[in-house]
Amino acid sequence: MVTGGKLQVDFSWHAFIPNFTKLNTLVVFVSFILAYMGVEASASHINELKNPKRNYPLAMFILVILAICLDTFGGFAVAAVVPQSELSLSAGIIQAFKYLLLYFNTHLNWLVKIIDLMIACGVMAEISSWVIDPSRGMFATAQQGILPSIFQKTNRHNVPINLILVQGIVVSIWDAVLTFGGGSNNVSFFVAISLTVVIYLVGYLLLFIGYLILIFKKKELKRTYEIPGGTVVKAIVAICGLLVSVFAFLISFVPPSSLPVTSHHSYLYVLIGSFAITVLLPFIIYEIYQRHSKHHQINTPQHLLAKDVNPTTPPIARGEHHIITNSDKKSI
């Protein structure tokens, strides 16, 4: 801006406020919802907080404010330098570095490639940490006997290697479906975002419904943290969360306005098909388990406190529960 560079975004009221009269414009909320998904995982550590009634809400407000600021400035940095007609939603940050560096020196293309490689390494590191958490959850399921016994086997480092290999194969297949099934990068990007949101929102819907049941039918349960204001305020918060989740779930299946009409069918086919498979598969597995393992004794997950978890392990990779098996009981 100082050297006379042209901004690629228009700072006018007409451009600043989306046209909410069109349903496909509302899909913009899906990306914002995804940015805050996962914060509920912190609730399991409330018992480790000092004065949780004060500090936990404070932490949530700080988190929301910081997330909005960082997302806003980061998104503006990309939108300000990359022409909208050339913007790729899955590679926008790389395009931003390219336009910025080549603007000052047209011979810095080699530096763009180095930055691209560094971003790719960072993404792979992030993925490797996220992959661990689902593996621990599935490993607990395998220990309960719901998955085949082959997934209970671990190597000498107590890593369920068979489960991780299968997970890698499944993830690779899904990546191929999203990448090649969409027909273009932006379709694949939107499907990946929307699919993540709708799957996650299934858990959110159950969470808010479960909370309503707790505040109306399980009032006697003692809790470390409670929303102030009594049952009425708790119900309002839960109902608002439930309604927003239902709205976000339904709006996710509307093709975004930025997608060409020719890509709408691809978007819906891949999204609906992937969602149906992902949601139905656990029910199928559990139905098979109930039919063939009626007398199987399920081990109870034991909650781990913060002091019981290796502090050098990244937070996203920390397992909060451990299945106490018969061999563990004998050693105890």
Strand content: under 5%
- Major sheet strand order: 1-2
Largest sheet: 2 strands, antiparallel
- Kindly report the average pLDDT value: 78
Low-confidence stretches: none
Report the total helices: 10
**How many structural domains?**
1
What's the quick description here?
With 332 residues, this protein is an all-alpha fold. It has helices spanning 13-16, 28-36, 52-81, 92-104, 109-143, 161-181, 185-217, 230-251, 264-292, 326-331, and strands at 301-303, 321-323. Helices cover 61% and strands 2% of the residues.
Which features does this protein show?
two-stranded antiparallel sheet, 2 strands, about 325 residues, globular, mainly alpha
Descriptive notes:
With 332 residues, this protein is mainly α. A two-stranded antiparallel ribbon has the order 1-2. The protein has one domain (13-294). It has helices at residues 13-16, 28-36, 52-81, 92-104, 109-143, 161-181, 185-217, 230-251, 264-292, 326-331; strands spanning 301-303, 321-323.
How are the SSEs ordered, and which strands pair?
Blueprint: H1 13-16, H2 28-36, H3 52-81, H4 92-104, H5 109-143, H6 161-181, H7 185-217, H8 230-251, H9 264-292, E1 301-303, E2 321-323, H10 326-331
Antiparallel strand pairs: 1-2
